[in-house]
Amino acid sequence: MTAAFSTQKKLSLKIDAPLYSLLEKQADETGVGLNDFIQQLLTDAMGDWCDYCDTLRRLSSEEDTPGHLCVK
Questions:
Q1: DSSP annotation of 28
Q2: What are phi and psi of 13, to 5 degrees?
Q3: At what angle do helices 17-30 and 34-61 cross, to 10 degrees?
């Protein structure tokens, strides 16, 4: 018999009531469930964090190379 393992893990978060209410409101306004909304926020935040770290690595590796940095 073969067992199928889920690629999803459960995460328990302690969130204060005002933040929870705000998250519920935003999820409702976007038309998604609260879990999906929080999952998307975490995914976006991790993507932004990885982009930030990659940028810092590129900048530190190019310290000796003249160049320009454009910030939008």
A1: H
A2: -120, 140
A3: 100
Question: pTM higher than 0.70, yes or no?
Answer: no
Closest CA to 11 of 32, 49, 41, 31: 41
Which of 13, 11, 35 shows the shortest CA–CA distance to 24?
35
Q: Report d(CA 22, CA 12) in Å as an integer.
A: 18
CA 61 to chain CA mean position, Å? 25
Maximum mean pLDDT: which of 1-15, 31-45, 46-60: 31-45
pLDDT score of 28 more than 70? yes
Alpha-helix runs per DSSP H in 1-72: 17-30, 34-61
Q: Pick from 12, 5, 6: which is nearest to 35 by CA? A: 12
